[in-house]
Amino acid sequence: MTVIIENANIVAADRVITGGSLTVRDGKIMRIDETLPDHLAADAERYDARGMYVYPGFVDLHVHGGNGFDLMDATPEAIDGMCRYHAAHGTTTLLPTTRTASVAAITSALTAANTYMASSQEPLRSLIAGIHLEGPFLALAYRGAQREEDLLLPSLPQMKEWLSASGGQIRLVTIAPELDGAESVIRHLREQNIIVSAGHSGATYEDMIRAADWGVQHITHCYNGMRGFHHREPGMLSAAWLDDEVTAELIFDTHHAHPAAAQVLLRMKGLDRVVLITDAVRPAGLPDGKYITEAGHSLTVEAGIVRLPTGSLAGSTLTMNIAVKNAIGQLGLKPYEAARLASLNPARILGLNQRKGSLAPGKDADLVVLNERFEVQRVMSLGHWLEL
């Protein structure tokens, strides 16, 4: 079956092709044309995207849940539900993300995710590129919404147990690199080709320099849950700004980071080293109100902002299409620049950029059709329109 998306504003890697067409066959992008191809396959399905934008499918490296579901529920239904919700908002590749909990609860979540990825359920399981382990090796003072009672010092034996429980599906680990035991864990993870991110951390400038030597190459939700910048103690933030090998996540719902702070991050890191994430949690997609987590903790959502009873932010209700909208509207990015932050950069971090992250012939047909208000019209994964 051939699918031709025509009359579209196609968000290519370095420009927007106005009134172009994109041809998909056998799960791959076959060609992109300035106009409709001269010769159409007899069985081609044609989709008129006049007035709409076709973006590469979004890649979310940090997402806990949504629409009432959370990875920590540790059930196939919960994982399916969160994938379905975020796919409906344009995400075609994601890393379901754990949070600090008991050793047993984290193990259950990792096992459930591995089982789901190995199941025959299609097409949603193909959206999952691995698991992001966030916690429990985090700093007490910068824990944010992470559970204080379950925080642990980094332990290599425990890390190895979780790698086994995940079936080797852990792709990214957030750790506070200043903690005792962090070095051995970080070095082992890098030996396994797992991305290591500094987060929920009080690391100093010197701590972060050392951590980068050990293998830390990423920053979890930059500005949030970390030591800030001071001119006499520039902290991990300035070390990350100045290291061209370090990439940084940004929750750009305009609540977690002021637009000016986001602009500073882009100026310091450049468009190739910043990634948009959602850090979405269970209440994403649900009405404002009070919610209880799987661990019995209370969350309050007001105007879409999730907080603990203490008033601290506790994840977000953001979706990737809105993150892109904010990046364009609040930061002045071009559509193809925003697509770099939302698709190509995270795909590159995962080592998937040869197949995903941009619209180009030969790449996987992962794409999202948005109207001018950034509302999702259709989503395609591996050449199949998703029914969401």
UniProtKB/TrEMBL annotation:
Q: Which UniProt keywords apply?
A: Carbohydrate metabolism, Hydrolase, Metal-binding
Q: Which InterPro entries match?
A: Amidohydro-rel, GlcNAc_6-P_deAcase, Metal-dep_hydrolase_composite, Metal_Hydrolase
Q: Which Pfam families match?
A: Amidohydro_1 (PF01979)
Indicate the segments forming the Amidohydrolase-related domain, all copies. 53-385
| Enzyme nomenclature, EC number | 3.5.1.25
Q: Which CDD domains does this entry report, sorted A to Z? A: NagA
Q: In the UniProt record, does the keyword Hydrolase occur?
A: yes
What EC class does the entry list?
Answer: hydrolase
- Indicate yes or no for the key word Nucleotidyltransferase: no
Source domain of life is Bacteria
For this chain, one GO molecular function annotation is: N-acetylglucosamine-6-phosphate deacetylase activity
Q: Which family does it belong to?
A: Belongs to the metallo-dependent hydrolases superfamily. NagA family.
Name by which UniProt lists this protein: N-acetylglucosamine-6-phosphate deacetylase
Q: Which organism is it from?
A: Paenibacillus residui
> Its encoding gene is what?
nagA
